[in-house]
Design goal:
By secondary structure, this protein is mostly helical. The protein has 1 helix and no strands. It starts with 34 loop residues before the first helix and ends in a 6-residue tail after the last helix.
Amino acid sequence: MFVVEWDGAENELVLGEGQALRLFPLDALPEPMPPHVRHYVEQLTRRLPLRSL
């Protein structure tokens, strides 16, 4: 799991690993997701700074 903020276009993100990396909004995470992973993601979102649009 990687946690970063990226403000560029998704197709401009160059990665050296990960076969099927996809970006998801926090309110549209994929299912199924193991409960322990969902818990971890929820804990991380509480620590992220709020961004104004």
